Amino acid sequence: MSPTAARTTRPQPHVTAKPAGEVHTALGHVTFLGAGPGDPGLLTLRAVDALRQADVLVADPEAYEVVREHVRPETDTPLQDAAAAVAGDVADLVMRSARSGSRVVRAVAGDPGLDTDATADMLALAGEGITFEVVPGVSHAVGVAAYAGVPLRRPEGGDVRFVDAATADERCWNEVGTSDATVVVSTSLDTVGVTAARLVAAGRKPDTPLSVTVAGTTTRQRTWSATLGTVERTLKSAKVLPSAEGDRSVIAVVGAGGAAERREPLSWFESKPLFGWQVLVPRTKEQAASLSEQLRSYGAVPSEVPTIAVEPPRTPQQMDRAVKGLVTGRYEWIAFTSVNAVRAIREKFEEYGLDARAFAGIKVAAVGEQTARALRTFGVRPDLVPSGEQSAAGLLEDWPPYDPVFDPIDRVFLPRADIATETLVAGLVELGWEVDDVTAYRTVRASPPPAETREAIKGGGFDAVLFTSSSTVRNLVGIAGKPHNVTVIACIGPATARTAEEHGLRVDVMAPEPSVQKLTEALAQYGADRRLAALEAGEVLKRPSEKRPQRRRTRTP
What we know:
By secondary structure, the chain is of the alpha/beta class. The protein is about 35% helix and about 20% strand. It folds into four domains: about 15-140, 3-Layer(aba) Sandwich (Cobalt-precorrin-4 Transmethylase, domain 1); about 140-265, Methyltransferase, Cobalt-precorrin-4 Transmethylase, Domain 2 (2-Layer Sandwich); about 280-305 and about 445-545, Rossmann fold; about 310-445, Rossmann fold (3-Layer(aba) Sandwich), CATH 3.40.50.10090. It has 20 helices and 20 strands. The strands form four sheets. The chain has a five-stranded mixed β-sheet, with helices on both faces. A five-stranded mixed β-sheet has the order 6-7-10-8-9, with helices on both faces. The chain has a five-stranded parallel β-sheet with strand order 12-11-18-19-20, sandwiched between helices. Mean pLDDT is about 85; it is low at about 1-10, about 15-25, about 80-90 and about 550-555.
């Protein structure tokens, strides 16, 4: 026997549908899709493909948060307010959508094979001759245990049983209690103690090892090791409150398979150097994409807050003349020093009905890999990217001097921000080039972030903030206030660090080279060093934000 989880109630679905007016004459198709236990990275390639083709998406709230990024941009998505979701029976909703000829995706948390409601829906569809398919997902029991570093099988082998504490009957508890199998229990924080007591009453010894994991596969994940007899005290001493966690389920692994001495060296996820760190990235979403992705790989939770807004130049005539000169052969080189410069030129090209072919015969330089990627997306392959430092100085290191024999034209087009430094211009002139230094866009201070974000910045809600330029320091302090002194301040270079110190900030981390990749690596190393120091001292590791002094309660006389 292997008891499996079964849902007894249906959560209110989120529904995404095609615009009204599109009529289908044939029966549609339904894909039952497993969204996994919480980490969007666990979605299969087949699941992503099905989501992109879906006409209608019916998803449980938990599953919707995982799959939402893969829904087509033109789809209407009533996400923010649960009341906005289509009401009524989920099975009827799926059936009606399929009858209308739509391609329907029914997304459930975990795996559809463990969802009895999904099975009932499949039988109903088969009865009406509507085709369907199943895209398996990683189950909570297996996925959470793997992320917690809890092996389910002992080295010598043995059975593994899966139990849903909410639906298991007395016979089930007796069977797993009298066996020596590893038991994986889907339970909740407020019933972990009851679950442990049932297993002891059924025959398990009180000193049987037990691990408890909440919010598994997400950066909120936390795991405790105990025994059946001590688990309640362990959770109480750790001050774990069901209402505070806000998680619907807990995975408990009972037996030698999840013993603490085996879990510690296998805890790969929670031991990431920045695990659970809330990191503020004061850049626009487009600029922060690669940086945020790198932070996530270290276990952090990035929050992108734009501090700079980009606007067109006040007088566009200079930009117009330069673009026309680009087409008529006025320039030997064009140098891009930012993604915003690429965007500005691209928008100007679209205005004139031009595309990447206008760069034919012109050499293109990019200040770094991020700018180079923006060019490649535009259809332009840069001829020059710094081999070393990704900055204006690094670009000058590799830039060839003007040679009247090999260079028919001696002019460089440099579209850039209105506040850019003169480093590149001066260096190119020294190399013998004539430079048309053109304001392609203006940078202005962005609007303040929401009040909740401002409070988190000033109150120590963020564990770290990454400053990638002096202007991000000035603008963040200007629109949101100074970060709390518990927040780790990481700067991309000496100039940015000096600006941070001028604003009263303590600089904890500085990149060895001025690149966002090196900056993120330096912060990860800082986190790893803190973790190692805590382990060596025998202390409980806390994130910087967890060290904020608590407000004293005033006594009521």
